[in-house]
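G.,

No rush on this.
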Amino acid sequence: MQSNITVYTTNSCPYCVMLKNFLNEQGLPFKEVNVQQDQEAAQRLIETTGQMGVPQTEVNGQWVIGFDPNTIMSLLKK
């Protein structure tokens, strides 16, 4: 099953590191977008989700706010 996972992060976010480590441990490939370094991506993220915090993860078009591995895994099973 092909999954499309994008993780939005910043340089100083410990939960972002935890989330990336979790995805790596599960063997799940993901794209990382650092919104601290990419202001346009940060603005798009706020416009899309209404949230400024990170991590935010897009899983096959569905949004997961924060470090929530259980929700990410349940979205991957759909």
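When you get to it, here's the other one too:
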Amino acid sequence: MKVLGVEFAPLSIPTERRLQTVGALHYTFCFLFFGFGMLFFFIYLFLFTSYYFVPLAYLLWYYYDQSVSEQGGRRSNWVRSWSLFRYSAKYFPLELIKTQELHPSKNYIFACHPHGVMSQSHFVNFATEGTGFSNVFPGIRPYLCVLSGQFMFPVFRDYFLLSGAVEVSRKSIEWVLSKEGCGNAVAIMIGGAVEALEAHPGSCTLKIKSRKGFCRMALQHGASIVPVYAFGENDLYDQVPNPQGSRVRRFQNFLTHMLGFSPALFHGRGVFNYTFGLLPYRKPVHTVVGAPMDVPRVEEPSQEQVNQLHDDYCKALVDLFESHKLKYGVSEEQHLELE
């Protein structure tokens, strides 16, 4: 039913569909509001109530526990297996596609593309069992790498750590690749926060040409690099037009540089309407995990070796995209744009 240009959802929706919406809403709420909400709540408790000791006690806990996000995290397989995440995966739906077996005797760097507005598919695929990662890749433990600032919010950090997520810092990634044994896969959104500003429906633009740190770490630890491309991730939200050089993009770039995260101006659908809101659109996302690139261990790799590995990786990523794009809704004329 449409009223004043807004298409409302029907009242008679199957329970399964409602549960899927709850799953998608959970991630959106946590991503946008949980962290800041708890921070402001603790400030309120400290300044305006007699429960000031609660944030003080938590501050002591944080001081004691702050390094865990750089030391392998605090994974809970029970939390990762919640049915909530399976419903979230079915909402779009999401699909995790294996092209080659990964042997548990090795460690891997999953180079994930594109970032998207909120990295919906990457979170569900690698920080939960929503798409059955453990069944698709038996013996492999995924560690989703996210901005360090995510682990500074009270309570939210403790909840997020249960997913197996860790900081996307050199120390954190090296810990997983060197001190957690074998069979580990660190999943890194290579394009970072800046790439989120390119997340327009149909866009295939990746920020990668200057992103070579993952190649250096792969060489230093002999970790295989695995190209990962999520077809449809950029289609989950509409974003305000922000072409390079526009006032909007210049302002966004400034805030990204100052704050460390990208202030994307986006909208999706609502809980009770299909026209406007913060929920992602119900559009399928197919995440293709490519063949691992074996990397020799070089304790002190030269810049030339890093550059060569980066060039080889970019070629492998383009090949992955080209060989699967027609199956997942990308036209023959469209190609990856590497910036």
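The chain has a mean pLDDT of 95. The chain has one domain: 2-338.

Enjoy the weekend,
O.
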